[in-house]
Automatic annotation (TrEMBL):
InterPro entries assigned to the protein according to its UniProt record, in alphabetical order: P-loop_NTPase (IPR027417)
Region of interest (Disordered), ranges: 662-740
UniProt xrefs under SUPFAM superfamilies: P-loop containing nucleoside triphosphate hydrolases
Protein name: Dynamin family protein
Compositionally biased intervals (Pro residues): 709-733
Low complexity: compositionally biased ranges: 675-684
Length: 863
């Protein structure tokens, strides 16, 4: 079998796995939001059920509108959990599956877990596959070997282990506390090292705590506590180090005490029990029989030993850390090949593999006893296959009980080719099955949660509309509320109307226009994009030697860009002006409606609109929609007003600029300074360019005809400075003068024209934008009046305010409403909010898992 081809196939499958990481991360993010919302909705349902339990509250629900909510908490006919408990359990199961998928797609390796009972041959198999020797992975005759979880990585040239240590608190919570509970001790574990050192445990056989007084189930756990206590000095220095997650590097020859139990349960005094301080171990060594570094062997402790909550840890490791499981089973004469404990391990594997078929996830490694005859060995293998036929799990014969050389050969020739072939063929399909299952599970549970949220929300809304909870008094209060809101909103409107009457500008827009104008003028005075004006003149005069027209076009393009950059920001001031009006109106509403109806956040009016949409209130809904859509309706101020002005900033020498109204016209620019002295190496007027200078490169031939410099040449857009791009056809010198004189004259003409045009554009933009700012005041005042009039003056709007405020009547009118009915009203309001959050979160999760995966192929044991 071509092992390199199989390993390449496995690498391709792992690369395909990485493609799914963004999808799973997105699902995970939306799932957290959804489950938080669901938990809050469950709390709201329980509160509502408690409120409706009172006689007064039940009298306030004559139409049984809330019966559908209570039904979710009604126990099943068979005494089982109610509907909401079942849905909550389904969500927890889906969350566990999501965690397993997240762990899987985040791995860049294929993790092969190895499990086996005492003396089954697990350590022998791991030694043969990894190349480690018995000092690192010892085999014990009668006792379990593996004390710490370990990952064995193929890293050519390395021989070390990365050991992650526990803290003392982790040791207490993860090790001592479970052992105390399993040992049936009445008190919890000691909380500090000194208390643990002196704690008195029952001693088996000492008369006071004889085995007869102790259950057979609890006794092994007690023994482990005593072992941990008597060996405390061995590992306490490791627990008392820097902090959580600390890692140390241990050479392989020193690793055994961190990884394995001593050779005898009552012996081994010379071997320190350092494994108590270990959270997990990553071994790095050179695998002798594979080349790919993507394969990791996971040594799973606990199968068949008494100790910690073996089943829980074993199941979690299988679910989150293992892609494929090898179950090592030794077959001996006169013994059942597969016992109850073996089937229990396979059952745990079946629970852990999720949506991956067990036939893909697990494989049994049959290790026949070396003492068996060939016929007996075949019987053992056939018995093994028959025992696991129900699970459709493949069985592979691999004799591990002989010499180290024979075990090594068996793993190399009989086991590894089968494992690699299986992973090459099925790993990608296993990943796909997990993702398919995640999509199915998430879709199903969110669909149920959305139905639940919709059902309880509909019941609550029906209750709000149908119960006559002191309707007359509530309507009277709503009438007064409408008058009070008219007073508050009228103050805001009158403020803006006064600005119109006084001819005032919107201060935000006025300030933005003035600041933009000043920035452009500073840009002009500072030499445009140069360090100062002298540098600009020098650079531009040099460019005028051969590209006068392109130079002029480039700078006018740059001026248009600068004007757009600076004055385009005026639109943001319009946003601020509109947002200020929205905030003023929201503040005015909040004084009467409270934060419960108009929250203090970035979008208070949108929150109010969302609440209004849940009740029959068409007038308020239309008023809020129109008012909150004001910014969209107004459009871009700069595009409408400023852009036409900027487009007129062009290189049209000699044109007459239109007049700007005197009150906004910009002051005339200062006269241009006299040309600076020519730089060293430049030709002065009437002189030949110095040999080797830049100007000498473009010296015209003797028979060249004089021409006019500065001929216009179009430029598409501002790009690299034209001085850095040689012109293939340079302009000849000016008639009657040298290069320097012609270039200087062209530069001065360009400077004057550019400054004049930009200053004129700035003045015109100031005038038009200030004029538009006056228009904007009238727009805001009109919008304020329209909202004020619609929300408080439309006939019948008082009834709409009553419907909107009913759910929050206790906070709006404290002291007016109390008792069971009022508490129920508040509980219904909370329920509606939580149901809406669940609907939002569930919809987002469902959308994230909506796309189907590509087609898949069928594996062994599948139809």
């Amino acid at each position: 079998m071509d092992r390199s081809r199989l390993e390449a196939s496995i690498s391709r499958a792992l690369a395909g796995r990485a493609v799914h990481r963004p999808l799973v991360a997105e699902i995970d993010r939306y799932w957290d939001i959804f489950t938080d919302s669901f938990t809050e909705l469950v709390d709201a349902v329980d509160r509502l059920v408690a409120e409706t339990a009172g006689a007064g509250a039940r009298g306030a629900d004559p139409d049984q509108a809330l019966a559908a909510v209570e039904a979710w908490r009604r126990p099943a006919a068979d005494g089982g959990p109610d509907r909401l408990e079942r849905l909550t359990a389904q969500i927890r199961q889906t969350e566990a599956h999501l965690g397993a998928v997240r762990s899987r797609v985040d791995r860049d390796t294929v993790n092969v877990g190895v499990v086996g009972r005492t003396r089954a041959g697990k350590s022998t198999l791991l030694r043969a596959a990894s190349g480690l020797d018995g000092t690192v992975l010892p085999s014990h005759e009668n006792n379990p070997t593996t004390a710490s979880r370990s990952w064995i990585h193929h890293r050519p040239g390395q021989a070390e282990a990365l050991v992650t240590l526990r803290t003392w608190d982790e040791f207490v919570e993860q090790y001592l506390a479970p052992l105390h509970a399993s040992a049936q001790l009445p008190a919890g574990p000691p909380r500090d090292p000194q208390s643990f050192r002196v704690h008195v445990y029952p001693q088996p056989g000492d008369g006071g705590g004889a085995p007869d007084d102790y259950s057979a189930v609890a006794l092994p756990y007690l023994r482990k506590l005593i072992q941990a206590q008597t060996s405390l000095d061995d590992y306490l220095p490791l627990l008392a180090r820097r902090g959580p997650g600390e890692r140390i590097v241990v050479p392989l020859k020193e690793l055994a005490p961190y990884l394995s139990y001593p050779s005898g349960e009552d012996g081994g005094a010379a071997t320190p029990r350092l494994y108590h301080a270990v959270r997990d171990i990553h071994v790095r060594c050179d695998f002798p029989h594979v080349d790919t570094t993507a394969m990791v062997l996971v040594d799973l402790p606990g199968a068949g030993e008494a100790g910690l909550d073996v089943q829980q840890h074993f199941l979690r490791d299988l679910t989150h850390e293992v892609d494929f499981l090898l179950h090592v089973k030794r077959g001996a004469a006169n013994s059942a090949f597969f016992g109850q404990e073996d089937y229990a391990d396979l059952h745990l594997a079946q629970l852990a593999c999720g949506d991956v078929p067990l036939s893909d996830f697990a494989m049994v490694v049959a290790n026949p006893d070396v003492s068996l005859s060939p016929e007996a060995a075949r019987n053992v293998l056939e018995t093994a296959r028959a025992a696991v036929a129900h699970y459709e799990v493949r069985t592979v014969e691999c004799p591990l009980g002989g010499t180290p050389e024979s075990a090594d050969a068996a793993v190399r020739e009989l086991l590894l080719p089968v494992v690699l072939g299986h992973l090459a063929d099925r790993l990608a399909e296993m990943d796909r099955a997990m993702l398919d299952g995640l999509r199915r599970r998430v879709s199903e549970v969110t669909r149920e949660a959305l139905l639940f949220a919709a059902e309880v929300a509909a019941s609550a809304e029906r209750w709000q509309l149908g119960v006559p909870d002191e309707a007359d008094r509530l309507q009277t209060l709503a009438d007064r509320l409408c008058d009070d809101l008219a007073d508050e909103l009228g103050v805001v409107y009158e403020e803006y109307d006064g600005m119109v009457a006084r001819g005032e500008h919107i201060p935000q827009i006025e300030a933005a226009v003035d600041e933009a104008a000043e920035r452009v003028r500073d840009w002009v005075r500072g030499g445009f994009d140069s360090a100062d004006e002298d540098e600009w003149r020098s650079r531009t005069r040099n460019g005028m030697f051969w590209r006068a027209g392109a130079m002029a076009d480039w700078w006018f393009n740059r001026a248009r860009t600068k004007l757009t950059e600076e004055f385009g920001g005026v639109d943001a001031s319009v946003d601020r002006a509109v947002a200020l009006l929205w905030q003023r109106m929201a503040d005015a509403l909040r004084t009467r409606l409270t934060e419960a109806v108009v929250p203090v956040d970035d979008r208070p009016l949108e929150a109010l609109l969302h609440r209004v949409e849940r009740v029959p209130a068409p007038v308020l809904k239309k008023a809020l929609e129109d008012f909150t859509g004001l910014r969209t309706d107004y459009g871009s101020l700069f595009l409408r007003v400023g852009s036409p002005v900027v487009q007129e900033v062009r290189n049209l020498t000699g044109r007459t600029l239109p007049q700007i109204p005197a009150q906004t016209q910009a002051p005339a620019p200062a006269p241009a300074p006299a040309p600076a002295e020519a730089h060293a190496g430049q030709a002065k007027a009437g002189e030949e360019p110095p040999p080797g200078s830049r100007a000498s490169w473009f010296k015209p031939p003797a028979d060249a005809q004089p021409g006019q410099p500065g001929q216009p040449r179009p430029a598409a857009h501002p790009g690299p400075h034209p001085a850095s791009e040689p012109d293939p056809q340079p302009a000849p010198p000016a008639a009657g003068g040298g290069y320097a004189a012609g270039a200087t004259a062209d530069m001065e003409q360009l400077h004057h024209h550019l400054v004049t045009t930009v200053e004129h554009a700035v003045g015109e933009l100031e005038h038009k934008l200030h004029t538009e700012a006056l228009t904007m005041v009238r727009v805001l005042a009109a919008a304020a009046f329209q909202f004020f009039a619609a929300a408080t003056g439309t006939p019948g709007v008082e009834r709409e305010w009553r419907r909107v405020c009913r759910a929050e009547q206790r906070s709006i009118w404290p002291g007016e409403f109390d008792g069971a009915e009022a508490a129920l009203s508040e509980a219904v309001s909370v329920l509606l909010k939580r149901a809406d959050d669940v609907r939002t979160g569930g919809t987002e999760v469902a959308a994230a898992v909506g796309a189907p995966l590509p087609g898949r192929k069928t594996g062994p044991g599948q139809g």
